[in-house]
Amino acid sequence: MSRMEAEALIARYYAAFNAGDAAGMLDCVAEDVEHRVNEGGVRRGRAKFAEFCSHMGVSYREELKDMVIFANADGTRGAAEFVVHGEYLKTDPGLPEAKGQRYVLPAGGFFDIRDGKIARVTTFYNLNDWIAQVSA
C-alpha cells in the first residue's frame, strides 16, 4: 500500500467516525484489529471493536475537526492529529456524571496497516483535561 492509500484509508475511517457510521469504520479494520484505547485495555478483534463503537455512539456525540493525517512511505504505519468536539450524553462507569456537557479536546491516533486494512489503532488524549471540562 502506498503512503497516499494509507492516508486515504485513515481519512475514510475518520470520515465514517464523523458520520456516526460504525459499519463504515468496521469496513476499514482488519478482522483481528487491535484497538488500544487511551488509558484503557486492549480490545482484539472486529467484534470487540464493534462493541466499543456501539457504546461510544450511546455515551458520546463527537466530531473530529482540524484533521491532519500522516503515513510512512510504504503505507504500513500512519498517524492522525485532530481536535475532538464532543458532548457527553450517558455516564460512563467510573467517570463523572453525564449531563450533556460539551468539551473540546486535542487528540491523536496511531495505526498499523496490513493488507489494505487497519490492523491496530491506538488513541491518545488527555483524560484529566476531559474530566476537568465535563466536571466544570
Features:
Nuclear Transport Factor 2, Chain: A; 4 helices; alpha+beta; single chain; 136 residues; six-stranded mixed beta sheet
Description:
Helix 1 (3-18) packs antiparallel against helix 2. The protein has one domain: Nuclear Transport Factor 2, Chain: A, CATH 3.10.450. 34% of the residues lie in helices and 42% in strands. It is of the alpha+beta class and 136 residues long. Strands 2-1-6-5-4-3 form a 6-stranded mixed β-sheet. It is built from 4 helices and 6 strands, in the order ααββαββββα. The protein has helices at residues 3-18, 22-28, 46-59, 127-135; strands spanning 29-36, 42-44, 60-71, 77-88, 102-114, 117-125. The longest helix is centred in the N-terminal third of the chain and has 16 residues, at 3-18.
CATH class: Alpha Beta
Number of domains: 1
How are the strands ordered across the major sheet? 2-1-6-5-4-3
Mean pLDDT: 94
- Biggest sheet overview: 6 strands, mixed
Annotate the secondary structure layout.
Blueprint: H1 3-18, H2 22-28, E1 29-36, E2 42-44, H3 46-59, E3 60-71, E4 77-88, E5 102-114, E6 117-125, H4 127-135
Parallel strand pairs: 1-6
Antiparallel strand pairs: 1-2, 3-4, 4-5, 5-6
Give a quick precis of the structure.
The chain is of the alpha+beta class and 136 residues long.
